[in-house]
Protein backbone atom coordinates (compact mmCIF):
# COMPACT_ATOMS: atom_id res chain seq x y z
CA UNK A 1 0.00 0.00 0.00
CA UNK A 2 2.78 2.37 1.02
CA UNK A 3 4.65 1.58 -2.16
CA UNK A 4 1.59 2.45 -4.26
CA UNK A 5 1.18 5.66 -2.28
CA UNK A 6 4.81 6.65 -2.80
CA UNK A 7 4.58 5.76 -6.50
CA UNK A 8 1.50 7.94 -6.85
CA UNK A 9 3.26 10.83 -5.11
CA UNK A 10 6.35 10.38 -7.27
CA UNK A 11 4.30 10.40 -10.49
CA UNK A 12 2.42 13.49 -9.32
CA UNK A 13 5.67 15.31 -8.59
CA UNK A 14 7.06 14.41 -12.03
CA UNK A 15 3.88 15.66 -13.73
CA UNK A 16 4.00 18.93 -11.79
CA UNK A 17 7.69 19.36 -12.66
CA UNK A 18 7.07 18.81 -16.38
CA UNK A 19 4.13 21.21 -16.35
CA UNK A 20 6.19 23.84 -14.54
CA UNK A 21 8.95 23.50 -17.13
CA UNK A 22 6.43 23.95 -19.92
CA UNK A 23 4.98 26.94 -18.11
CA UNK A 24 8.42 28.52 -17.68
CA UNK A 25 9.14 28.02 -21.36
CA UNK A 26 5.97 29.83 -22.34
CA UNK A 27 6.95 32.78 -20.14
CA UNK A 28 10.42 32.95 -21.67
CA UNK A 29 9.42 32.76 -25.33
CA UNK A 30 8.38 36.43 -25.74
CA UNK A 31 11.73 37.49 -24.29
CA UNK A 32 13.81 35.48 -26.71
CA UNK A 33 16.32 37.47 -28.75
CA UNK A 34 14.67 38.54 -31.99
CA UNK A 35 15.99 37.49 -35.37
CA UNK A 36 17.03 40.40 -37.59
CA UNK A 37 16.77 40.59 -41.38
CA UNK A 38 18.34 43.67 -42.95
CA UNK A 39 17.43 44.28 -46.61
CA UNK A 40 19.36 46.97 -48.47
CA UNK A 41 18.48 48.10 -51.99
CA UNK A 42 21.00 49.68 -54.35
CA UNK A 43 20.37 53.18 -55.75
CA UNK A 44 16.65 53.43 -54.95
CA UNK A 45 15.11 56.76 -53.98
CA UNK A 46 12.60 56.97 -51.14
CA UNK A 47 9.70 58.26 -53.25
CA UNK A 48 9.94 55.60 -55.97
CA UNK A 49 7.86 53.07 -54.00
CA UNK A 50 4.12 52.73 -53.85
CA UNK A 51 4.25 52.90 -50.06
CA UNK A 52 5.67 56.43 -50.35
CA UNK A 53 3.01 57.60 -52.76
CA UNK A 54 4.37 56.81 -56.20
CA UNK A 55 1.28 56.18 -58.33
CA UNK A 56 2.89 53.94 -60.94
CA UNK A 57 5.83 51.93 -59.56
CA UNK A 58 4.63 48.44 -58.64
CA UNK A 59 5.95 47.45 -55.19
CA UNK A 60 3.15 45.32 -53.69
CA UNK A 61 5.34 43.46 -51.20
CA UNK A 62 7.02 46.55 -49.75
CA UNK A 63 3.63 48.27 -49.67
CA UNK A 64 2.23 45.35 -47.65
CA UNK A 65 5.28 45.36 -45.40
CA UNK A 66 4.57 49.03 -44.64
CA UNK A 67 0.92 48.21 -43.85
CA UNK A 68 2.00 45.35 -41.59
CA UNK A 69 4.69 47.39 -39.85
CA UNK A 70 6.03 50.93 -39.59
CA UNK A 71 7.02 53.36 -42.34
CA UNK A 72 9.44 56.24 -41.67
CA UNK A 73 8.89 59.45 -43.64
CA UNK A 74 12.02 61.30 -42.48
CA UNK A 75 14.81 58.74 -42.92
CA UNK A 76 18.25 59.71 -44.19
CA UNK A 77 21.62 58.25 -45.08
CA UNK A 78 25.01 59.53 -43.99
CA UNK A 79 26.19 59.68 -47.60
CA UNK A 80 24.92 59.01 -51.12
CA UNK A 81 27.72 56.73 -52.28
CA UNK A 82 27.56 52.92 -52.33
CA UNK A 83 30.42 51.49 -50.26
CA UNK A 84 30.81 54.44 -47.84
CA UNK A 85 27.10 54.19 -47.04
CA UNK A 86 27.36 50.47 -46.30
CA UNK A 87 30.49 50.72 -44.17
CA UNK A 88 28.87 53.58 -42.26
CA UNK A 89 25.81 51.44 -41.53
CA UNK A 90 27.71 48.37 -40.40
CA UNK A 91 30.16 50.32 -38.20
CA UNK A 92 27.70 52.82 -36.73
CA UNK A 93 30.09 55.62 -37.71
CA UNK A 94 29.88 58.63 -39.98
CA UNK A 95 31.90 57.97 -43.17
CA UNK A 96 34.73 60.32 -42.17
CA UNK A 97 35.22 58.20 -39.02
CA UNK A 98 35.22 54.84 -40.80
CA UNK A 99 38.53 55.44 -42.62
CA UNK A 100 36.58 54.12 -45.61
CA UNK A 101 34.89 57.31 -46.74
CA UNK A 102 35.89 57.16 -50.40
CA UNK A 103 34.32 54.82 -52.93
CA UNK A 104 35.65 51.23 -52.68
CA UNK A 105 37.86 51.88 -49.67
CA UNK A 106 37.58 48.85 -47.35
CA UNK A 107 36.46 49.16 -43.75
CA UNK A 108 39.71 48.57 -41.79
CA UNK A 109 39.98 45.56 -39.47
CA UNK A 110 40.37 47.82 -36.42
CA UNK A 111 36.83 49.16 -36.86
CA UNK A 112 34.20 47.18 -34.96
CA UNK A 113 30.83 46.33 -36.49
CA UNK A 114 27.46 45.54 -35.00
CA UNK A 115 27.44 42.27 -36.97
CA UNK A 116 30.63 41.20 -35.21
CA UNK A 117 29.03 42.03 -31.86
CA UNK A 118 25.89 40.04 -32.69
CA UNK A 119 28.04 37.08 -33.74
CA UNK A 120 30.04 37.25 -30.51
CA UNK A 121 26.75 37.26 -28.57
CA UNK A 122 25.60 34.00 -30.13
CA UNK A 123 23.83 35.13 -33.30
CA UNK A 124 24.37 33.26 -36.54
CA UNK A 125 25.25 35.87 -39.18
CA UNK A 126 25.00 35.68 -42.96
CA UNK A 127 25.19 37.90 -46.03
CA UNK A 128 23.80 37.29 -49.51
CA UNK A 129 24.08 39.60 -52.52
CA UNK A 130 26.15 42.73 -52.98
CA UNK A 131 29.04 43.00 -50.52
CA UNK A 132 31.29 46.04 -51.23
CA UNK A 133 32.74 46.59 -47.72
CA UNK A 134 36.29 45.20 -47.92
CA UNK A 135 37.99 41.97 -46.89
CA UNK A 136 38.26 42.56 -43.11
CA UNK A 137 34.46 42.55 -42.70
CA UNK A 138 34.07 39.12 -44.27
CA UNK A 139 34.96 37.38 -41.02
CA UNK A 140 31.93 38.99 -39.33
CA UNK A 141 29.66 36.65 -41.29
CA UNK A 142 29.32 32.92 -40.65
CA UNK A 143 28.18 32.50 -44.25
CA UNK A 144 28.73 34.87 -47.16
CA UNK A 145 27.02 34.27 -50.50
CA UNK A 146 28.48 37.16 -52.47
CA UNK A 147 27.10 38.04 -55.90
CA UNK A 148 29.31 36.94 -58.78
CA UNK A 149 30.31 39.00 -61.81
CA UNK A 150 30.68 37.78 -65.36
CA UNK A 151 34.15 38.49 -66.73
CA UNK A 152 34.43 42.12 -67.82
CA UNK A 153 36.88 45.02 -67.46
CA UNK A 154 37.06 46.55 -63.98
CA UNK A 155 35.69 50.07 -63.86
CA UNK A 156 33.38 49.65 -66.84
CA UNK A 157 29.81 48.36 -66.97
CA UNK A 158 29.63 44.68 -66.08
CA UNK A 159 26.91 42.04 -65.89
CA UNK A 160 26.07 39.89 -62.91
CA UNK A 161 25.64 36.14 -63.01
CA UNK A 162 22.09 34.93 -62.52
CA UNK A 163 19.23 37.30 -63.28
CA UNK A 164 21.33 40.38 -62.48
CA UNK A 165 19.40 41.34 -59.35
CA UNK A 166 22.00 40.21 -56.82
CA UNK A 167 19.12 38.66 -54.84
CA UNK A 168 19.38 35.12 -56.22
CA UNK A 169 20.61 33.51 -53.01
CA UNK A 170 18.65 35.40 -50.36
CA UNK A 171 16.30 32.46 -49.75
CA UNK A 172 19.13 29.92 -49.78
CA UNK A 173 20.85 31.87 -47.00
CA UNK A 174 17.69 31.83 -44.86
CA UNK A 175 17.25 28.11 -45.47
CA UNK A 176 20.89 27.25 -44.72
CA UNK A 177 20.94 28.92 -41.30
CA UNK A 178 21.15 26.76 -38.17
CA UNK A 179 17.76 26.45 -36.51
CA UNK A 180 19.01 26.53 -32.90
CA UNK A 181 20.34 30.11 -32.86
CA UNK A 182 18.96 33.61 -33.32
CA UNK A 183 20.07 34.87 -36.70
CA UNK A 184 21.04 38.06 -38.49
CA UNK A 185 21.07 38.31 -42.28
CA UNK A 186 22.28 41.14 -44.51
CA UNK A 187 20.39 40.79 -47.80
CA UNK A 188 21.81 43.17 -50.40
CA UNK A 189 20.25 43.77 -53.80
CA UNK A 190 22.06 45.06 -56.87
CA UNK A 191 18.76 46.50 -58.11
CA UNK A 192 18.37 49.27 -59.15
CA UNK A 193 22.04 50.01 -59.92
CA UNK A 194 23.12 51.00 -63.40
CA UNK A 195 23.49 49.83 -66.11
CA UNK A 196 19.81 49.24 -66.85
CA UNK A 197 18.97 46.39 -69.23
CA UNK A 198 15.87 45.90 -71.34
CA UNK A 199 13.83 42.70 -71.19
CA UNK A 200 14.06 41.91 -67.46
CA UNK A 201 10.28 42.17 -66.98
CA UNK A 202 7.26 40.69 -68.73
CA UNK A 203 5.34 43.79 -67.61
CA UNK A 204 7.50 46.71 -68.78
CA UNK A 205 6.57 50.24 -67.81
CA UNK A 206 5.20 52.67 -70.38
CA UNK A 207 7.14 55.88 -70.86
CA UNK A 208 4.01 57.79 -69.85
CA UNK A 209 4.14 56.12 -66.42
CA UNK A 210 7.48 57.73 -65.58
CA UNK A 211 7.68 60.77 -63.31
CA UNK A 212 10.76 62.89 -64.02
CA UNK A 213 11.90 65.30 -61.26
CA UNK A 214 11.96 68.95 -62.41
CA UNK A 215 15.77 69.13 -62.14
CA UNK A 216 16.00 66.72 -65.10
CA UNK A 217 14.56 67.38 -68.58
CA UNK A 218 11.67 65.19 -69.74
CA UNK A 219 13.40 63.71 -72.76
CA UNK A 220 12.65 60.36 -74.36
CA UNK A 221 16.05 59.17 -73.10
CA UNK A 222 15.33 60.06 -69.49
CA UNK A 223 11.89 58.43 -69.68
CA UNK A 224 13.41 55.22 -71.07
CA UNK A 225 15.96 55.12 -68.24
CA UNK A 226 13.30 55.75 -65.60
CA UNK A 227 11.07 53.00 -67.04
CA UNK A 228 13.93 50.48 -66.81
CA UNK A 229 14.82 51.74 -63.34
CA UNK A 230 11.22 51.07 -62.24
CA UNK A 231 11.48 47.52 -63.61
CA UNK A 232 14.48 46.81 -61.39
CA UNK A 233 12.64 48.15 -58.35
CA UNK A 234 9.72 45.83 -59.08
CA UNK A 235 12.05 42.86 -59.49
CA UNK A 236 13.72 43.63 -56.17
CA UNK A 237 10.30 44.00 -54.53
CA UNK A 238 9.41 40.48 -55.69
CA UNK A 239 12.44 39.13 -53.80
CA UNK A 240 11.36 41.02 -50.67
CA UNK A 241 8.06 39.18 -50.91
CA UNK A 242 9.89 35.86 -51.15
CA UNK A 243 11.85 36.68 -47.99
CA UNK A 244 8.70 37.48 -46.00
CA UNK A 245 7.07 34.28 -47.28
CA UNK A 246 10.10 32.21 -46.31
CA UNK A 247 10.14 33.62 -42.79
CA UNK A 248 6.46 32.77 -42.45
CA UNK A 249 7.03 29.26 -43.82
CA UNK A 250 9.76 28.69 -41.25
CA UNK A 251 7.45 29.87 -38.46
CA UNK A 252 9.80 32.64 -37.31
CA UNK A 253 8.15 35.72 -38.82
CA UNK A 254 6.51 36.90 -35.59
CA UNK A 255 9.77 37.45 -33.72
CA UNK A 256 11.85 38.56 -36.71
CA UNK A 257 12.69 42.23 -37.29
CA UNK A 258 12.82 43.07 -41.00
CA UNK A 259 14.24 46.47 -41.95
CA UNK A 260 14.31 47.68 -45.55
CA UNK A 261 16.42 50.68 -46.67
CA UNK A 262 18.45 51.79 -49.69
CA UNK A 263 22.17 52.61 -49.71
CA UNK A 264 21.59 55.88 -51.61
CA UNK A 265 19.21 57.53 -54.03
CA UNK A 266 18.52 56.73 -57.67
CA UNK A 267 21.44 56.75 -60.12
CA UNK A 268 20.41 59.88 -62.00
CA UNK A 269 21.83 63.41 -62.24
CA UNK A 270 21.48 65.47 -59.05
CA UNK A 271 20.48 62.39 -57.05
CA UNK A 272 23.16 59.78 -56.32
CA UNK A 273 26.48 61.27 -55.04
CA UNK A 274 24.72 64.50 -53.99
CA UNK A 275 23.39 65.66 -50.63
CA UNK A 276 20.00 66.68 -51.99
CA UNK A 277 17.10 64.56 -50.79
CA UNK A 278 17.23 62.65 -54.08
CA UNK A 279 20.60 61.32 -52.91
CA UNK A 280 20.36 60.89 -49.13
CA UNK A 281 16.68 60.44 -48.30
CA UNK A 282 15.89 56.74 -48.10
CA UNK A 283 12.88 54.45 -47.90
CA UNK A 284 12.78 52.97 -44.40
CA UNK A 285 10.22 50.28 -43.61
CA UNK A 286 10.39 48.04 -40.56
CA UNK A 287 8.24 45.05 -39.69
CA UNK A 288 8.19 43.17 -36.37
CA UNK A 289 4.82 41.54 -35.72
CA UNK A 290 5.60 40.78 -32.08
CA UNK A 291 6.27 44.44 -31.21
CA UNK A 292 5.26 46.92 -33.93
CA UNK A 293 1.67 47.96 -34.44
CA UNK A 294 0.58 47.43 -38.07
CA UNK A 295 0.08 50.57 -40.12
CA UNK A 296 2.33 52.72 -37.94
CA UNK A 297 3.69 55.93 -39.47
CA UNK A 298 6.75 57.66 -38.03
CA UNK A 299 7.48 61.28 -38.99
CA UNK A 300 10.56 61.72 -36.82
CA UNK A 301 14.11 62.05 -38.12
CA UNK A 302 16.27 58.95 -38.24
CA UNK A 303 19.72 58.36 -39.76
CA UNK A 304 21.35 55.21 -41.13
CA UNK A 305 24.14 55.69 -38.59
CA UNK A 306 21.48 54.81 -35.98
CA UNK A 307 20.93 51.28 -37.31
CA UNK A 308 23.95 49.70 -35.57
CA UNK A 309 23.15 50.83 -32.00
CA UNK A 310 19.46 50.03 -32.49
CA UNK A 311 20.01 46.48 -33.73
CA UNK A 312 22.32 45.81 -30.80
CA UNK A 313 19.80 47.22 -28.32
CA UNK A 314 16.98 45.14 -29.78
CA UNK A 315 19.20 42.06 -29.49
CA UNK A 316 19.64 42.75 -25.77
CA UNK A 317 23.17 44.15 -26.09
CA UNK A 318 24.54 47.53 -25.07
CA UNK A 319 25.56 49.62 -28.09
CA UNK A 320 29.27 50.34 -28.44
CA UNK A 321 30.42 53.62 -26.94
CA UNK A 322 32.30 54.34 -30.18
CA UNK A 323 29.10 54.54 -32.23
CA UNK A 324 28.22 57.93 -33.72
CA UNK A 325 24.56 56.97 -34.05
CA UNK A 326 21.77 56.86 -31.48
CA UNK A 327 19.41 54.03 -30.57
CA UNK A 328 15.96 54.66 -32.07
CA UNK A 329 14.26 51.52 -30.67
CA UNK A 330 12.00 53.63 -28.41
CA UNK A 331 10.41 55.07 -31.58
CA UNK A 332 9.08 51.63 -32.52
CA UNK A 333 6.71 51.64 -29.55
CA UNK A 334 5.97 55.38 -29.50
CA UNK A 335 5.87 57.24 -32.81
CA UNK A 336 5.77 60.54 -30.92
CA UNK A 337 9.15 59.90 -29.30
CA UNK A 338 11.99 61.86 -30.93
CA UNK A 339 15.63 60.75 -30.78
CA UNK A 340 17.30 63.50 -32.86
CA UNK A 341 16.69 67.08 -33.99
CA UNK A 342 18.72 66.92 -37.18
CA UNK A 343 20.70 64.59 -39.43
CA UNK A 344 24.20 64.98 -40.87
CA UNK A 345 25.41 63.84 -44.28
CA UNK A 346 28.63 64.02 -46.24
CA UNK A 347 29.94 63.61 -49.77
CA UNK A 348 33.45 62.43 -50.61
CA UNK A 349 35.23 61.07 -53.66
CA UNK A 350 33.00 58.90 -55.88
CA UNK A 351 34.65 58.53 -59.29
CA UNK A 352 35.27 62.30 -59.05
CA UNK A 353 36.62 64.45 -56.25
CA UNK A 354 34.21 66.33 -54.01
CA UNK A 355 33.86 67.44 -50.40
CA UNK A 356 30.41 68.57 -49.32
CA UNK A 357 28.55 68.52 -46.01
CA UNK A 358 24.88 68.91 -45.15
CA UNK A 359 22.67 69.18 -42.10
CA UNK A 360 18.91 68.72 -42.31
CA UNK A 361 16.01 69.31 -39.96
CA UNK A 362 12.41 68.43 -40.73
CA UNK A 363 11.97 71.86 -42.35
CA UNK A 364 15.36 73.03 -43.64
CA UNK A 365 18.41 71.70 -45.48
CA UNK A 366 21.79 73.42 -45.39
CA UNK A 367 24.59 72.36 -47.77
CA UNK A 368 28.19 73.56 -47.57
CA UNK A 369 30.26 73.06 -50.74
CA UNK A 370 33.91 73.11 -49.70
CA UNK A 371 35.13 72.69 -53.29
CA UNK A 372 32.81 75.15 -55.09
CA UNK A 373 35.17 75.29 -58.06
CA UNK A 374 34.17 71.72 -58.97
CA UNK A 375 30.85 70.99 -60.72
CA UNK A 376 28.28 68.67 -59.14
CA UNK A 377 29.21 65.84 -61.52
CA UNK A 378 27.22 62.57 -61.25
CA UNK A 379 28.92 59.18 -61.04
CA UNK A 380 30.70 57.90 -64.14
CA UNK A 381 28.11 55.23 -64.96
CA UNK A 382 25.44 57.94 -65.11
CA UNK A 383 27.58 60.07 -67.42
CA UNK A 384 28.08 57.17 -69.84
CA UNK A 385 24.33 56.58 -70.21
CA UNK A 386 21.63 58.19 -72.32
CA UNK A 387 19.93 60.47 -69.78
CA UNK A 388 23.13 62.45 -69.25
CA UNK A 389 23.88 62.48 -72.97
CA UNK A 390 20.43 63.91 -73.64
CA UNK A 391 21.02 66.54 -70.93
CA UNK A 392 24.26 67.58 -72.62
CA UNK A 393 22.43 67.95 -75.92
CA UNK A 394 19.79 70.11 -74.24
CA UNK A 395 22.56 72.12 -72.55
CA UNK A 396 24.32 72.74 -75.84
CA UNK A 397 21.00 73.82 -77.37
CA UNK A 398 20.38 76.20 -74.47
CA UNK A 399 17.07 74.56 -73.50
CA UNK A 400 17.85 73.47 -69.92
CA UNK A 401 16.26 75.33 -67.02
CA UNK A 402 18.38 76.85 -64.25
CA UNK A 403 17.71 73.85 -61.99
CA UNK A 404 18.62 71.41 -64.77
CA UNK A 405 21.94 73.23 -65.29
CA UNK A 406 23.09 72.72 -61.71
CA UNK A 407 25.15 69.61 -62.48
CA UNK A 408 27.13 71.66 -65.02
CA UNK A 409 27.37 74.88 -62.99
CA UNK A 410 30.86 76.20 -62.19
CA UNK A 411 31.48 77.55 -59.71
CA UNK A 412 28.82 76.22 -57.39
CA UNK A 413 27.52 78.38 -54.56
CA UNK A 414 29.48 77.80 -51.37
CA UNK A 415 26.27 77.65 -49.35
CA UNK A 416 22.79 76.35 -50.13
CA UNK A 417 19.70 76.65 -47.96
CA UNK A 418 16.31 75.13 -48.73
CA UNK A 419 12.91 75.09 -47.10
CA UNK A 420 12.23 71.43 -47.84
CA UNK A 421 8.61 71.62 -46.69
CA UNK A 422 7.73 74.33 -49.22
CA UNK A 423 10.35 73.32 -51.79
CA UNK A 424 10.76 69.50 -51.65
CA UNK A 425 12.84 69.36 -54.85
CA UNK A 426 15.29 71.95 -53.42
CA UNK A 427 15.04 74.35 -56.35
CA UNK A 428 15.11 77.72 -54.53
CA UNK A 429 18.41 78.46 -52.81
CA UNK A 430 17.62 80.79 -49.89
CA UNK A 431 21.21 81.29 -48.69
CA UNK A 432 21.38 84.84 -50.08
CA UNK A 433 17.84 85.75 -49.01
CA UNK A 434 18.10 88.19 -46.08
CA UNK A 435 14.72 87.03 -44.75
CA UNK A 436 16.34 83.69 -43.89
CA UNK A 437 19.49 85.00 -42.19
CA UNK A 438 18.39 83.66 -38.81
CA UNK A 439 17.73 80.20 -40.27
CA UNK A 440 21.03 80.28 -42.19
CA UNK A 441 23.02 81.11 -39.05
CA UNK A 442 21.23 78.42 -37.07
CA UNK A 443 22.01 75.78 -39.72
CA UNK A 444 25.61 76.96 -39.94
CA UNK A 445 25.94 76.44 -36.18
CA UNK A 446 24.39 72.98 -36.40
CA UNK A 447 26.92 72.02 -39.08
CA UNK A 448 29.82 73.50 -37.12
CA UNK A 449 28.76 71.68 -33.96
CA UNK A 450 28.49 68.36 -35.77
CA UNK A 451 31.88 68.73 -37.43
CA UNK A 452 33.52 69.53 -34.11
CA UNK A 453 31.71 66.77 -32.21
CA UNK A 454 32.54 64.07 -34.74
CA UNK A 455 36.04 65.39 -35.57
CA UNK A 456 35.26 66.00 -39.22
CA UNK A 457 37.96 67.93 -41.06
CA UNK A 458 38.93 69.15 -44.53
CA UNK A 459 41.73 67.06 -46.15
CA UNK A 460 44.98 68.80 -46.96
CA UNK A 461 45.07 67.25 -50.44
CA UNK A 462 42.54 66.46 -53.13
CA UNK A 463 42.08 63.05 -54.71
CA UNK A 464 42.56 63.04 -58.51
CA UNK A 465 39.50 62.11 -60.60
CA UNK A 466 39.39 58.57 -62.00
CA UNK A 467 37.23 59.53 -64.97
CA UNK A 468 36.73 62.34 -67.46
CA UNK A 469 33.85 64.47 -66.19
CA UNK A 470 32.47 65.20 -69.64
CA UNK A 471 32.46 61.61 -70.98
CA UNK A 472 32.53 59.27 -67.96
CA UNK A 473 35.32 57.22 -69.52
CA UNK A 474 38.48 56.49 -67.52
CA UNK A 475 41.44 58.35 -68.92
CA UNK A 476 43.49 55.70 -67.24
CA UNK A 477 42.27 52.22 -66.45
CA UNK A 478 42.92 50.66 -63.04
CA UNK A 479 44.65 47.28 -63.06
CA UNK A 480 44.12 46.98 -59.31
CA UNK A 481 41.73 48.69 -56.87
CA UNK A 482 42.32 52.25 -55.69
CA UNK A 483 44.67 52.43 -52.71
CA UNK A 484 42.99 52.53 -49.30
CA UNK A 485 43.09 55.48 -46.95
CA UNK A 486 45.83 53.77 -44.91
CA UNK A 487 48.09 53.61 -47.99
CA UNK A 488 47.43 57.28 -48.77
CA UNK A 489 48.14 58.31 -45.18
CA UNK A 490 51.42 56.35 -45.08
CA UNK A 491 52.55 57.99 -48.31
CA UNK A 492 51.71 61.41 -46.88
CA UNK A 493 53.72 60.69 -43.70
CA UNK A 494 56.69 59.74 -45.88
CA UNK A 495 56.38 62.93 -47.90
CA UNK A 496 55.21 61.21 -51.08
CA UNK A 497 52.31 62.33 -53.26
CA UNK A 498 50.55 59.10 -54.16
CA UNK A 499 48.56 58.95 -57.35
CA UNK A 500 46.52 55.90 -58.30
CA UNK A 501 49.18 53.40 -59.47
CA UNK A 502 49.25 50.79 -62.21
CA UNK A 503 47.31 52.49 -64.99
CA UNK A 504 47.11 51.84 -68.69
CA UNK A 505 45.49 54.25 -71.12
CA UNK A 506 41.98 53.18 -72.22
CA UNK A 507 40.65 56.46 -73.57
CA UNK A 508 38.37 55.64 -76.55
CA UNK A 509 40.14 56.49 -79.80
CA UNK A 510 38.35 58.71 -82.33
Automatic annotation (TrEMBL):
SUPFAM superfamilies: Alkaline phosphatase-like. Gene3D superfamilies: Alkaline Phosphatase, subunit A. Signal peptide: none annotated. InterPro entries: Alkaline_phosphatase_core_sf, Sulfatase, Sulfatase_CS, Sulfatase_N. Residues 34-316 form the Sulfatase N-terminal domain. Pfam families: Sulfatase. Keywords: Calcium, Hydrolase, Metal-binding. Belongs to the sulfatase family. This is Sulfatase. It comes from Seonamhaeicola marinus.
Amino acid sequence: MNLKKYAFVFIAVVILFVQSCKSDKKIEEPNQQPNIVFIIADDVSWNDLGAYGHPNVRTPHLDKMAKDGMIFNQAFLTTSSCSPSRTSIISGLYPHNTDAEQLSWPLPDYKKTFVQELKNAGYWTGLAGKYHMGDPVRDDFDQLLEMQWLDAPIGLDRRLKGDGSGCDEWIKLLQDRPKDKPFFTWLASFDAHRPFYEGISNQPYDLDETIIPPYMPETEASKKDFALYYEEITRMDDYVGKVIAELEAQGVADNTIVLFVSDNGRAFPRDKTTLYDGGIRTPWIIKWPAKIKPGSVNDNLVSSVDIAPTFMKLAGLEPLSDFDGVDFSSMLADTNHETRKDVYAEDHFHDFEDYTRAVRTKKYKYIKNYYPDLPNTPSADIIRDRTWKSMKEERDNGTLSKAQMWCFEMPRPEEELYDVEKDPYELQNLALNAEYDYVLNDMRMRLKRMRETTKDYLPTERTPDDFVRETGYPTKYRIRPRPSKAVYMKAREEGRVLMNPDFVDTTPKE
